[in-house]
Fold each of these.
Amino acid sequence: MENSKKISIIVFAGVIVLFFVSWISKTSGFQSTGLPFGASVRDGFLITLAAFLTLAIISFLYKDNPYYKFAEHLFVGVSAAYWMCVGFWSTFVGNFIPKVSSTLSGFFEVPYKGFDIFYFVPLILGIMLLMRLSSKVGWVSRWSLAFIVGTTAGLNLIRYMRSDFISQVSNTFVPLLVEWQGTGHFFSNFNLSISGQFVMMLGNWVIFIGVFCGIIYFFFSKEHTGFFGAASKLGIWILMVTFGASFGYTVMGRVSLLVGRLTFLFRDWLGLIN
Amino acid sequence: MKRQLPLALVFIFGIFMIIQYFVPHESSEWVFEFLLDWIYIIGIFALALGIWSLIRVSWDKVKYRKENWFYSLVTLFGLFAMIVFGFDYLRNFQTAEGLQNFMFRHFFDYIMIPIQATMFSLLAFFIASAAYRAFRARSLLATLLLVAALIVMLRFNPYFGPISPYLEKTASWLLNVPNLAAKRAIVIGVGLGIVATALKVILGIERAYLGKD
Amino acid sequence: MRQKLIIIMCLLFIPALAAGQESVITADSSLVDTITVVPPAPVTDLIAYDKNNDHGHAIILKWTPSADDGAGKKNVLGYSIHRSLSPNGPFEERGIAAAGDASYNDVGSKERESADYMADHVDYYYKVRTLTADESVYADSEVVGPVQSYGQWFNTDRWMVLIFVIGFMAIMIFMINKARRGAKLFVRRLAGIEAVDEAIGRATEMGKPILYVLGLGTAAEIATIASFTILGRVAKKVAEYQTGLIVPCYDPIVMTVAQETVKASYMDAGRPDSYDEDMVYFVTQSQFAYVAAVNGVMLRELPATNIYMGKFFAESLILAETGALAGSIQIAGTDEIAQIPFFVVACDYTLIGEELYAASAYLGREPVLLGSLKAQDYAKAAVMVIAVIGFITIHFGWDTFVEWFHVAN
């Protein structure tokens, strides 16, 4: 037998042994807190399973391996069914059934809200979508798609025109000469504090020029040469500073996520920390 | 019928959603709320299509003993187990009791949540490896990115002695001023791009989503 | 003897003084019992009218505050608003306004079943009661009415949005028509777009598939729609070169549309038989389960090229880094501003924001799409002109121009 296969079998055996050792120790730990035997066995198994799945995912950092594959495939199956169940009970039974059928409402034990014929439209459109499975009448599903795509296209057009365009244009109206009361007044208030006239004016100028140059960078129909090219270059520099700042800003947040998982492993599973 | 009617539907509903924004009257609002409700309900039928696709692809791998077929069995096991629990062992499938079902909740708490949280926590490692690869300052742009990131990352570090307060002020200025300017430029561009694409979809110019006969 | 007499008289006098004091105190407290709260002056100039730019079921009241509110007797605690269906009552209280207030919005529910239902096109009568610390002491204004609430057919507050929508539509239709008539429209190079063709060629040479990730948006998200167009172009090239294509999907409707798109591309390329429906498959609608599965695909299938186009969230860095570890060329495009830095850092080419929407025009070079790109550029130029005008008007104190751009929600 190849060495790698031998090693895999030894590792697998080790994992199984470790799993059972952990299960037994967690069970006895729960029992010592007064939990009944059955509940201790169940909770011991579940904590051990959660810890092993955690380690299986972390093992991905080393390389792809059977434990990661197992955890990944289990996660895919469980999560797909989870959202299906939640979607069925909350939207279909919770939102749709009470408005179309008193019989079905009684069957599913949800309060009947009165018949609304308009709710047959999504039912028909939904069935049309399911016709996708047939090669002969699959084209009928396009009508449902058209409804969804058209509705959200119109909604998004207005939403983004207002929030991403007009509001942003309005926010660009910054006073470039902040409380300008003459050169004498400006130099007497020349300081680097955040509320100082100089810093505020500098900030507003940077915002104004930054927005201009950023927009110029995104011009597609003109070659970036000459003055246009210089402004575009300044734009991409400001964009890079932004991306660096955003990157740096999220680093600590991401590290804190790891701290959370390590706390679970060392506290809840191994009991090494309080 | 196969293409013209869907294009007409896209146009009608798209234009209606634009017009309804300007019409505050109750009747317009009533239709608007209905349309949004309908989208959620149709989404459930689409979910059935998705689950069917997952089952078919996984079963094909098992049936034809393709590579890693065993793991597709694990997927199918997880899927069907969760469905059975979600409908309360098919005994009490009439009610949403399934969602309160003991095993359903425990599968969620001890399988989904740990794996989800661990995947999220991998970001800590990946952000470090991305920083290592990117921060080699091989060009001016990479240098700008690196310097800005370092200033913001180290802004609360007290070990830089007398320059620490200036580091914090610089980081704060970077986050509030050039960051704001660049994001505004991107947002304006994105807003225009979305509006233009939405218009193209409504007018039938963009029709890749309809496929071909 | 004389001293003793004085002391005795003092001793006698003290109780008399005390008695007198009590009677004075008694007299004072009786004075207190008789002080009453004086009714305040009522509000004046009360008007009521339908609230504008709404769906109805709301009426606005305005008045001049009582003369005793903050002045005069200064005994006003607040105002209560009363409504009736007839001028003679009975009136029901609708709400309270604080002292100093001069207006109130009477907003009712539009649901008939609600206890707060306020019907439209019904005559209402209002009065405002000026309140004091004593509940029984108040002053009512004149009754105003009849006034009816009703919904409007056009929201005049949103006229600026209408102008922009019509204006942009007009520019776009004009540029598209110009392009259709054969006008040559120049677009500059975009490195990320040019890299797509190179990346497909690389995958073909290596004999490895291309992984295309449509993101976590729904089929109705504009970023996903833009991604469908790019997928169509990529799939057509992939079909021509007979390279493999893997498209794992997060959303089932996205899967449906992606299957249609890829199938159409294969038919366009003249290779309908090469199309395999399992190229495009649904994974799960859970964010990190999807990421775990795509990571697995990257490490097992070892695609030569990873293309990420669409809506991405926190998982963007996990995907990009795993792809980098697998040694794939990576091209990303998203409009999620928070994720762009991660793609810039981890991918070989990144389409930033609007470039994602421009990609379809770049890849197809269809005049109609180039025309819309030109229209976007004109709109951006308009933004710059408006910003300059805004700066000038601010400094001359012409607030009207700035106010035009404050659109209420």
Amino acid sequence: MQIFPRELNYLPLAVALVAGGLGAGVFILFWVYFTPPNLQVGYAPKQPVDYSHRLHAGELGMDCRYCHSQAERSHEAMVPPTQTCMGCHALVHTESVKLAPVRESWETDDAIAWVRVHQVPDHAFFNHSAHLRAGVGCASCHGRIDQMEVVGVVEPIAMQWCLECHRNPEEHIRPKSEITNMKWEADEAWLAQRAAIASVLNPPLHCSGCHR
Amino acid sequence: MTRRKSYELSPGKGPSMWRSLEDKALGAEELTKLAQEEQPGGFITDLLSPKALVSRRSFVQGSSIAALAAGLQGCVRRPKNEILPYSKAPEYSVPGIPSHFATVTSRGRDALGVVVTNHDGRPTKVEGNEQHTRSLGGTDVRAQAYVWDLYDPDRSQSPAQRRGNALVDATDTDFDKALKDLAQKHEKDQGAGLRILAPISNSPSFRRMRDKVIEKFPKARFHTYSPINDDNAREGARMVFQGAPHIPLYDYSKSAVTLSLGSDFLGSEPGAVAAGRRFALTRKLGSAEAPMSRLYVLESNFTVTGSMADHRLRIPQAEIEWFARALLIVLAARGATQLKPIADVLQQVEGALDTDGIDMAWIDAIADDLIENRGRSLVIPGAGQPARVHALATVLNAALGNFGRTTFFAPVIDPDDSDNRASIGDLANDADATSSLIILGGNPVYDAPADVKFAELLDREGLTSVHLATHRNETSERCSWHAPLAHELEAWGDQQALDGSVTVQQPLIAPLYGGRSEIELLATLMDEKTSSGHDIVRETQAGQLDKDTKALLDYGVPATDLSSDVIWRGALHTGVLLSPAQSKPPVNVASLIEALITFRSRNRASRDNFEVVFEPDPALWDGTHANNLWALELPSPMTKLVWDNAALISPTSARELGVKNGQMLRLSKGEAKVEIPAWIVPGHADHAVTLTLGWGRTAAGRYGNGKGFDVNPLRTSSQMDFTDGVTVDPLRETYSLVQTQTHDRMEGRPIAIDATLDEYKKEPDFASYRSVDPVSTPPLWKQVDYGEGHKWGMTIDLNGCTGCNACVVACQSENNIPVVGKFEVERGREMHWLRIDRYFVGDDANNPEVAVQPVTCQQCEEAPCENVCPVNATVHSPEGLNDMVYNRCVGTRYCANNCPYKVRRFNYLDWHGHLDDKFGWFEDFPESRKLQFNPNVTVRMRGVMEKCTYCVQRIEEGKLSAKRDGRTLRDGEIKSACQQACPTGAITFGDLNDPKSRVSKLAAVDRNYKLLAEIGTRPRTSFLARIRNPNPKLKGNG
């Protein structure tokens, strides 16, 4: 005797399909929304001082290393001490309201609490000096800072993204003289010689290159 | 090479190489079974047992909360982090680049020059200073561990005043006022009643301030007391050099035959670091033809020096003098004519010579060896030996023609300073006349001789006492005032080493808790113009700086480049202000003879007359480092005990007393009693007990309180080093002592390989007898070619390694390795990446030799751990490193199971808390300790496997700095932390692809071998087998 209709034989399949679909949905949800390209890119927190990179690095054409002076020596590029700001702003825009926190820091000797924008994931040790030495430009990772009013993340700072370049540095390096040049574009002469330069870089691909 | 047993354990026989007496007694089957256990003693499977930390129920509760929390955390987009740059940046400071400063740490009246690494203002790591004559680039355990003391969360954080029975926090102003009142009171009476007690000091500035205090308060008195002091050596020096005493300095590198009369010169004695380096030069053989020195050691406890001996005679401490007297007679008869006058007197006076029970075969062999090697030998007295033995050793060295060749002298520093034991006794006798007592550091309530009854002295009515100390310790608790003492890394000072060299002690950090130094306190007391330590030191050294300036001017250096400031900065930079002094004093034996014939009572130790020897703890020292976690969990070099001290006795004594390991003993002498568990040490002298100082503290801090047993009640001012007439009664109770010596069993495989020099000469490649290449075991995977680029490797010379443990602590501080506590060590969960295995060799349990072997990750090219990791958390780098990736590790522990060397360590718990502790779960992990972490190494969390990485952070930094400068890497530029710390230079790290590198040359030496090479792991670390150089005339124990 047939109690259940024949169509019900398809129930397990339907259940499996729905469950599989749901699972895939959750998976895709996480893939899209909880991975670095989404978590990292676009993060542009408000800073305690309305500092404009567009103005300083773009319009005024200041070199990155005027403020981030240790980038070639240390693993940190270094957020400049208040002293660096005051080097100019003791004379320029001395009454500006926007600069009030800077003057306050200068007078009280307290640090300005800048908010970290670019953060390398835990367990990874990144070194600015190594990348500058190899000829990776600032703009390669940080984007066109000279056009940003508020600095935000433009590249997913994630292992896969790092490795893309480590596996194939040729396309991401530039002459060492152009490292801080935001507007630089590869010309014929560079394209001709970059393969030879990249061939001796040997960026680490093994774990302890970054994880210690 | 008969003592090397076959690969398999020989059934029915004790192994000839054994880790503990229990192992020795076991049969092969039982040993194999033990070796197969991952957890010593088995896993604690019953979670409800009182031994386990959590019940099943609370475990489930905890894990659900954790799961929930993890879910919640996932919703947070990202943690908001702040960057706090300086407002006004200090010049030359580069965030992220560590700086290094030369400074110095005191060793009683000696000093050890060190270079301290400073990460963004935090001192994190200590290395030796190559330019300092007492370091020569090496360090000891205490130097490695003392940076931890800086961040000790239990350091005193403010002055305190006694109200009723308790210390109440006070302000610096209150304390300064109290000090001022005290000074004013004594200005009136010229300091009558003012007494100042200080530990022995090596500081010229301290001496200058002391003289100034006496000038200002002429009736005041200074007293000196340190529980571990140099009284014997100084008295011995006075005995042979009348008038102006001189202290001997030994050059072990020139000695072919060294005889230690109870001296632990490679371990706890002053100058051990430099001694180790020089001694190792005569032992690290490049080939079988190279000359090798011979070392005879007489001692009662088994020390690291004894473990290096070619012949070791275990005799009670008191017997050593009688041995030396007998040796003197024989030497005099065999041509050491200078000894004749003493020998004649000794032979004439009844009782001055007693050879009963002394092994004359030994004396015969040693005497021949010493006479044969005149001018190339050394006789070293132990710090714990009476002054007569110190004087005797100097006379023997003189007679053997060693002066100016192996034995040098420097004038005794501060010769007028009185003996410690007399000084503290005087202070106690003078109690009635004392109205104010200032104690500059130290902890006399805990460590003063028992007969002084220091606590009672402090409790007297009407006494104002001031105690300057790092912690509010046992002494502070009884004083009227307490003030925090600045750590050596926080304060300016100057220190003179025994050889006369002076180093400026420069601070690397401002006092964390507003502490002050001894000299600063004295300056405040005298109301000096400045109480700044820097200015005081500068003023002390002004004369020297001017002299140096003038000398350089005379030398022709242009005056424009020269000033005392330039010299000062140069001295700060190199860590040496004044070079060592040398003197050649004439020896006078009259007082020695007098002393020898006056002392004629020989009390031989027996069952009813035990000798008790007091030794400093290798890590805790006199208790100064009693709250130092690294020191507390450091396995003692010979016993491998952690977190406790014990009464060390020989197997024979144990049998006579009928005691087992851990059974409590009552040691009593007169009224004094100490109850302490027994620990049987093979090779210890019979009828003697060794007790280590520094334990059993009651006010050390949260970690050190109540750990171990206080043995000071037995120590009296007349017998500070050893005492006889002690009755030992076994008690019924037992105490759980925890040791690491039976952890990480190697299944009886011969991994610490040794041979005698003769055997080595006959068969130079004896050590690599199993390292068949290509290996007999075929590889699992396709072999990788490491011919290109770097090929990192390490060699460890077992002929240089003393097992002193400096590398273990160095590794711990460099790599943020946690400390786990006694309970966890008992379960085999210690975390040291580098362990030092200690084996006893030989079949006589009472008189074995010792072989030590540092074992850490061997960086196998065919690593068994990598094959079993399901998540690729441990993989190989192209340079041959066995990388460990913490963020991939899921904690299966398969790798640890599959490691034949047992060098992997698992984080069973969150030992270091969480650095971003959002939920406040880890409040018990003190904030101050986080300051010590090396920022270049991940602080691992629970559930992660870890192991030695060859200090990969240093390798990457070295490679990078070469890249930055556009040059190739130099050999020796990258040093692993263990290599840098090693006082004997036994560890070498480098590139095996560079044929000129030191490591590849050492890897090519014939006595080089790889651990378990036959199983085909192809380790990168290799060992140079231990060679012993026994005297053919002496059979047994060699």
